[in-house]
Design goal:
Layout (H helix, E strand, L loop, with lengths): L1 H15 L8 E13 L12 E15 L4 E21 L5 E5 L3 E15 L6 E10 L2 E2 L7 E2 L3 E16 L2 E22 L4 E22 L4 E15 L13 E13 L2 E11 L8 E13 L2
Antiparallel strand pairs: 1-2, 1-15, 2-3, 3-4, 3-5, 5-6, 6-9, 7-8, 9-10, 10-11, 11-12, 12-13, 13-14, 14-15
């Protein structure tokens, strides 16, 4: 926890000291995707209508704090729901369709602040803090929680730009990481109802690679982020299984094809492996036609 406070203090001080420095390089992309299908009540077969919507935003703020320090702040968030029809029967026994309560299909919040030293060497030192969470936690049917669970990561190490030819860029960083997983109001007993917050702390080695390219004149934008983490200690190791010793992997890929002005085709694919959650490789894919707008 001392490393946690130290990194937060370091980045906060350096960020505040930049108030009178050069302007921020700001970027913000907002996307809205919608897909819809409908069927008449007498449609042959079991097909039912559905509506799926996803709103996402990707923001960044970068600038040189001083000739030696460069600050990069990123915010990625997305939220979406799926509304689906269900089959039922009326009092006369006729087949009917009704709209069920919507299910959450996408929910993500990812904030990171990275401070690196620009020493013009083969690699540059960095310090970073990160928060990962979701807007709505419905895992407990008796209590809906906001911004839960929360994962804090503090890391120190070295970073390098392997490609820096605008618009193509490939960066990688490697270092030590400390993570705190906070799960609030976890039910301990049902009768009487008793809840408590649970905190798990682990530390280890982390590698993060980011790739971005803009393919002209096709207006095709590709972003890829690979995260690898190997824990070497866990404060709950005596209470839980050895699954925490397995490496974690998260690989996210986004492909955006801008068709005309604000209309774009968006494809997202995620591969995730965390044995503590499930001992299999997880896969997620979304694709849709939507509105895309660059605020700045």
């Amino acid at each position: 926890m001392k490393l946690n406070r130290l990194l937060f203090t370091l980045i906060a001080v350096l960020t505040i000291s930049a108030a009178n420095a050069e302007p921020w390089d700001l970027k913000c992309d907002v996307n809205f995707n919608l897909s819809q299908s409908a069927y008449s009540s007498n449609w042959a077969g079991s097909a039912v209508g559905s509506i799926t919507w996803i709103t996402s935003a990707s923001m960044s703020a970068e600038k040189a704090i001083s000739p030696m320090f460069y600050n990069i702040n990123t915010l990625n968030m997305a939220i979406g729901q799926t509304h689906q029809q269900r089959e039922g029967t009326d009092a006369q026994g006729n087949k009917t369709h009704y709209w069920a309560r919507p299910d959450k299909s996408t929910d993500r919040l990812d904030i990171e602040s990275l401070m690196k030293m620009t020493m013009e060497s083969y690699v540059n030192p960095f310090a970073a803090v990160r928060l990962e969470s979701q807007f709505i936690d419905q895992s407990d049917p008796t209590l809906t929680k906001i911004l839960n669970p929360m994962k804090f990561t503090e890391s120190l190490g070295a970073t390098r730009n392997f490609l820096d030819n605008d618009p193509e860029m490939l960066t990688g960083r490697f270092g030590l990481a400390l993570r705190q997983n906070l799960n609030r109001d976890v039910m301990v007993t049902a009768i009487p109802v008793s809840r408590e917050s649970k905190v798990t702390v682990d530390g280890g080695l982390e590698f993060v690679a980011n790739y971005k390219n803009v393919y002209e004149p096709a207006n095709l934008i590709f972003n890829s982020k690979l995260q690898l983490y190997q824990a070497v200690f866990n404060n709950k190791s005596d209470e839980i299984s050895d699954d925490w010793k397995s490496p974690d992997m998260n690989w996210e890929n986004t492909l955006t094809l801008k068709l005309i002005k604000a209309v774009s085709l968006n494809f997202y694919m995620q591969l995730k492996y965390e044995k503590e959650e499930i001992s299999e490789l997880q896969f997620k894919e979304t694709m849709g036609l939507g509105l895309s707008y660059n605020l700045f």
